[in-house]
Amino acid sequence: MFLLEVVTVLFVMNAVLFIHEIGHAVPVLMRNKKARVEIYLGPRNKEQKLELRLGRLTCYLTIAFSGLCRVANSDELPSATSKQNLLFSAGGPIASLIVFILFLYLSSIIPGIPGNIFNSAAFMSLSVFLFTAIPITYPSFFKNLGGHKSDGWYILKNIKEIKNQAKTIA
Fold first, then answer.
1. What is the helix (H) or strand (E) element at residue 68, kind and residue range?
2. What's the pLDDT at 168?
3. CB 128 within 8 A of CB 119
4. Cβ of 122: how many Cβ atoms within 10 Å?
5. What is the pLDDT of residue 170?
6. What is the spatial distance between Cα 120 and Cα 125, in angstroms, rounded to a whole number?
7. Which residues form a coiled coil (predicted)?
8. What is the largest CA-CA distance in the chain?
9. d(CA 34, CA 56)
10. Which pLDDT value is given to residue 157?
11. Is 52 helix (H, G, I), strand (E, B) or coil?
């Protein structure tokens, strides 16, 4: 029974991370029909991972505690505007927040073990939202994230750029 619980927690956690990364991918795929996006769960490599292709989206999946979304062919595309970068940065946290609300609602209407799983998934989604939306540089002890900046950091950066552009025009 314990092994089943561990597998369930790992599956739910990775599903929550995957949804967060999909939130980053959607704005890019919608803004440019030539964009190709890659999602990595775990380290940014393709070795020993399940490869899943969905049109212009390629996912490299494994059991992980972190994820990454990147534009695979950014050098072939026009530069993104600050507003487009803001949508990319905010897409993951927004997806996590929406999934938190959805799973919390489902946990309130579905009884028993499935409801408990939705409740756990809701709070994992909330944790991912908070962990990524707070503007910080991750400390080095976070294996795959150490030294990288959070989505919240990029959101603030892009908001400042948009404000500066508006001042320049005015």
1. strand 67-71
2. 80
3. no
4. 22
5. 62
6. 9
7. none
8. 64
9. 8
10. 96
11. strand
36 and 56 in contact (C-beta within 8 Å)?
A: yes
Q: Residue 164: is it exposed, middle or buried by C-beta count within 10 angstroms (0-12/13-18/19+)?
A: exposed
DSSP single-letter state for residue 44: S
Q: What is the pLDDT of residue 34?
A: 95
Rounded to 5 degrees, what are φ and ψ at 140? -65, -25
Residue 136, by phi and psi: left (phi above 0), alpha (psi -120 to 50) or beta? Answer: beta
Averaged in consecutive runs of 10 residues, what is the pLDDT profile of the chain (170 residues)? 85 95 96 95 88 95 92 93 95 98 96 93 96 94 85 96 83
Sequence ranges of the domains in the chain = 2-169
Q: How far apart are CA 61 and CA 30, in angstroms?
A: 23
pLDDT of residue 169: 76
Structure tokens at 85: 């970068």
Given CA atoms 51, 54, 19, 43 in this order, what sign does their dihedral have?
positive
Which pLDDT score, from 0 to 100, does residue 19 have? 97
CA–CA separation, 58 and 54 (whole Å): 6
**Closest listed residue to residue 70, CA positions, set 96, 46, 42, 35:** 35
